DNA sequence: GAGTGGTCTAGACCACCCC
DNA sequence: GGGTGGTCTAGACCACTCT
């Protein structure tokens, strides 16, 4: 393995990070499985262990991979990961060690409209699945979700399958369709509850709600989900750390 | 420098990170200044350059310090840092390369009330300065801020001083009072504009607004500011990246 | 004990900045 | 040319996990 020379210098560990990412995209190692040891990878790519280490460190910083001392390095998984809360930034104000439970309230297949077509990078005429979902903390509605998924990527998704599944949506999408969410971009606005959402969320019409728009990405920064969540915030908040 | 032995093992680079942080708290190097080179620090602490490097990497990841190849490592500063936007997550929906401008609309000194006392970790009877401020993009109001600062830490702060200053609040606090904000925790809710805020933000009463509560921390995770911002979100959004 | 990731070292060399 | 951070290497040893 030789290093590119300047201009446009690219460090070795960065090139190896890219190679590892390509292997992940190709499905060489599935979520939850371990990747080869640092020593093996060093031999494979003909670099030192330290260089492989730095590449893996970068993947671990991106939450694409998880290191466990004494055991190995594992492909991050939504399935076994107990952290259902990894992408969920809504939390109860009083910490009631309560797990959120979600309930299916609607499922359709439709042609991608303006925003979903644009945000999911779809060509005209493409179809998307739309999932409507109610998230509850301790039987109290908190978030009304509208989840848009390109049907080309999630072939065979249907209502029965969704109802059967317990646990997090991303865990479900990962295990059934082999698509893992890596990161997401969110834009938040304040809106008023309309008649329909007020009824489902069990709040008066006109209640102020958070409107959280999310685009979620897989390996290689491919957008694969667009989601809009309406959140009641009398006893929940969107929490964030900024630095 | 010897390493602690297990149990409760603490790596050398971590201990050095703590020592460096203590020097920052003590003011050995001020914001904007460079810290000693890696080689110098390695000699001072009697460790290898690689170990110092790892400690500095950790500080850089926390945005406490900024590395500049060929020049040195510098204490992060709000003053010269052009990124006024580092802690501001509100952005216009259409990218109008427009810089936000803030306008002072009120200044008082009062006894710390329930939330400010609790959130700022103050003892009963402590006093706080309260700054009311209007943030505008292109002359249009976007955010109404209410900033609470413990007066013990910001002695001599007054209205004239505030009016005189141009630029970011944190830059001002850093240069005048030697207090640098490192990170912040935010909790966001949706609320309705009351009469007073509606007037200042030039929106109808009852308009849905984001209510962003922020606690900001200096070195050593000391809370030193509590802020509540009310944000109009018809053409702005709170943007966030989650992973 | 064997295998994994984690720490620490010492040294060579490269890219970048400024004089 | 000299100083700074950045990359890469090779090797020793430590902490953790499983068998």
Structural summary, described in words:
- The structure is a homodimer of 243-residue chains.
- With 243 residues, chain A is α+β, with helices and mostly antiparallel strands.
- The first copy, chain A, has two domains: 12-75, Arc Repressor Mutant, subunit A (Orthogonal Bundle); 81-238, Chorismate lyase, CATH 3.40.1410.10.
- Chain A is 26% helix and 35% strand.
- Chain A is built from seven helices and eleven strands.
- Chain A has helices spanning 12-26, 38-45, 49-61, 114-119, 159-164, 169-177, 195-201, and strands at residues 34-35, 65-68, 72-75, 90-92, 100-111, 127-137, 140-150, 183-192, 208-218, 222-232, 236-242.
- In chain A, the strands form three sheets. In chain A, strands 5-6-7-10-9-8 form a six-stranded antiparallel beta sheet. In chain A, strands 1-3-2 form a three-stranded antiparallel beta sheet.
- In chain A, β9 and β10 (222-232) form a beta hairpin.
- In chain A, α1 (12-26) crosses α3 and α2 packs across α3.
- The first copy, chain A, starts with 11 loop residues before the first helix and ends with a strand.
- The interface between A and B is medium-sized, with 30 and 30 residues.
- β11 of chain A pairs antiparallel with β8 of chain B, so a sheet runs across the interface.
- Chain A binds a DNA duplex (19 and 19 nucleotides) through α3.
């Amino acid at each position: 393995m030789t290093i590119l020379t300047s201009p446009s210098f690219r460090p070795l560990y960065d090139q190896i990070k890219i190679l590892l990412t390509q292997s992940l995209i190709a499905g060489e190692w599935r979520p939850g499985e371990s990747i080869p040891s640092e020593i093996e990878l060093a031999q494979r790519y003909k670099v030192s262990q330290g260089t492989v280490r730095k590449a893996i460190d970068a993947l671990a910083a991106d939450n694409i991979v998880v290191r466990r001392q004494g055991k190995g390095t594992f492909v991050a998984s939504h399935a076994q990961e107990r952290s259902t809360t990894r992408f969920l930034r809504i939390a109860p104000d009083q910490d009631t060690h309560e797990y959120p439970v979600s309930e299916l309230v609607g499922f359709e297949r439709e042609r991608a409209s303006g925003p979903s077509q644009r945000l999911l990078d779809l060509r005209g005429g493409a179809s998307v699945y739309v999932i409507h979902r109610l998230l509850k903390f301790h039987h109290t509605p908190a978030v009304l979700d509208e989840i848009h998924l390109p049907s080309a990527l999630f072939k065979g998704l249907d209502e029965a399958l969704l109802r059967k599944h317990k646990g997090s949506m991303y865990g479900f999408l990962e295990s059934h369709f082999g698509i893992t969410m890596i990161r997401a971009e969110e834009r938040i606005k304040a809106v008023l509850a309309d008649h329909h959402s007020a009824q489902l969320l069990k709040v008066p019409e006109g209640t102020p709600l958070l409107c959280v728009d999310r685009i979620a990405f897989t390996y290689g920064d491919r957008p694969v989900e667009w989601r809009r969540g309406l959140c009641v915030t009398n006893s929940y908040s969107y929490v964030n750390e900024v630095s």
